[in-house]
Write a structure and sequence with these properties.
It is a single chain. By secondary structure, the protein is of the alpha/beta class. It folds into 2 domains: about 200 residues, Rossmann fold (3-Layer(aba) Sandwich); about 180 residues, Rossmann fold (3-Layer(aba) Sandwich), CATH 3.40.50. About 40% of the residues lie in helices and about 15% in strands. The protein has a 7-stranded parallel beta sheet, with helices on both faces. The chain has a 6-stranded parallel beta sheet with strand order 10-9-8-11-12-13, sandwiched between helices. Helix 4 runs parallel beside helix 5. The chain is globular. The model has no long low-confidence stretch (mean pLDDT about 90).
Length: about 400
């Protein structure tokens, strides 16, 4: 067993979203292999959330130009608000150096980045490059296709990041790479001329809880079938396509045996789409939740779900995975997705739902699931979850093994 694993996510600054649960899941999964696990989030993460999950807070927030956050009791430094590339790199290196010195990190330790961000990754590469390879810890980068592209100058950071990783690998530094989807892993492997693993969310305690819920009740068919859109509070996740889907279903199902639950847009975005949201809200059987939900509220939402819709923008998600999809398969909830996103390949492989060619096909597919018997659906999702669990756990072990 190795000494310590530092699970690092400088973007983990908000009390909701996939960063908090992702940091939690990968910290849990690492425990059997290290004597000590130290998850490190942004200094902007509220203190009560950090205490709740046992996270340290060590990174300034480098992405005010990309993500709208209102840090509680945290005044952003002048550097973190700057659009100057060199200042941002300097700030990230300072943070990483402070962590490195505080914990006296050595070659017996490991640094994990479960969702790579540009400045965090560039900082650790720059810091390690000053040390001879045998004296450095293992570094694990997991690419998800989001913040590894984010720079303060508006250009994609990925080409520069990959160039530096390739240089470090050639020099003998201990870096292991993975991506959230097979499509992204293949693209990175081609660019780097090295192996890139595929590592989805590892199995976790939340997925174990769902098994008893999905088996609850003995009815063959449910009187009310609940279709949910978790994380739908963004236009790139298909929020503006939901009206067409819901209104079509309501014409076919005027008795409202099929209900819909969605998250509304954040205030800043909703002002541009007030008329649309009012139309969506006016459809009978549609419930619109707040744009931000806590982990407990999200878990409650999943527990009510019979089916989840993922009508994501296929250009934006061409290489990306879906945290919602991984949460669903781990809980035994089928999904319907729009063809083209990288995670659609995984939906098909695991047998975890359906992939449709266009928005107009969603309504018919929803009706198909509505009239699948509960025992049949449970059997299908047990198989999907079983395949995913074995795959995810094995992939994680293979990736983290030196």
């Amino acid at each position: 067993m190795r000494e310590r694993a530092f699970i690092c996510d400088p973007v983990c600054a908000l009390p909701y979203g996939h960063n908090v649960v992702g940091l939690k899941y990968f910290s849990e999964a690492s425990k059997p292999f290290y004597n000590t696990i130290i998850p490190i989030a942004s200094t902007c993460l509220p203190e009560d959330i950090a205490l709740k999950y046992g996270f340290e807070r060590g990174f300034e927030f480098y992405y005010y130009n990309h993500i709208n956050i209102d840090p509680i009791n945290k005044i952003p430094s002048a550097h973190s608000l700057s659009s100057d590339y060199d200042l941002m790199i300097e700030l990230a290196i300072q943070d990483m150096s402070t962590i490195y010195e505080k914990y006296v990190i050595s070659e017996n330790d490991a640094l994990f980045f479960p969702c790579v961000d540009y400045y965090g990754a560039m900082a650790i590469l720059e810091l390690l490059y000053r040390i001879s390879p045998p004296k450095t810890p293992f570094v694990y980068f997991r690419f998800i296709g989001v913040m590894e592209n984010a720079t303060s100058i508006g250009l994609s950071g990925l080409p520069k990041l990959l160039k530096d990783i390739k240089k470090m690998l050639a020099a003998g530094y201990k870096i292991k790479l993975c991506a959230e989807t097979p499509r992204y892993a293949d693209s990175l492997a081609s660019d780097l001329a090295t192996f890139v693993n595929v590592v989805p969310y590892p199995t976790h305690t939340d997925m174990i809880k769902k098994l008893t819920i999905i088996e609850g009740g003995g009815e063959e068919y449910k009187d009310i079938f609940t279709v949910v859109c978790p994380g739908s509070a963004r236009c790139d996740k298909g929020y503006l396509d939901l009206f067409d889907i819901f209104s079509t279903i309501r014409k076919i199902d005027p008795r409202q045996s099929i209900k819909f639950v969605v998250q509304g847009l954040p205030v800043a975005d909703s002002l541009q789409h007030t008329s649309y949201t009012n139309q969506l809200y006016a459809i009978p059987g549609v419930k619109i939740l707040h744009s931000t939900l806590s982990e407990e509220e999200m878990n409650e939402l999943y527990s009510l779900s019979d089916l989840v819709l993922l009508p994501y923008d296929t250009a934006i998600y061409a290489f990306r995975g879906s945290a919602v999809f991984m949460e669903c398969i781990s809980r035994g909830i089928p999904v319907i997705a729009l063809a083209g996103s990288a995670f659609c390949d995984q939906i098909i492989y695991y047998g975890a739902g359906s992939v449709v060619p266009e928005i107009g096909s969603f309504a018919n597919e929803i009706l198909q699931y509505r009239y699948v018997s509960k025992p049949t659906l449970i059997t299908k999702m047990y198989q999907a979850r079983h395949r995913y669990s074995i795959d995810a756990d094995y992939a994680f072990i293979q990736w983290m093994t030196p």
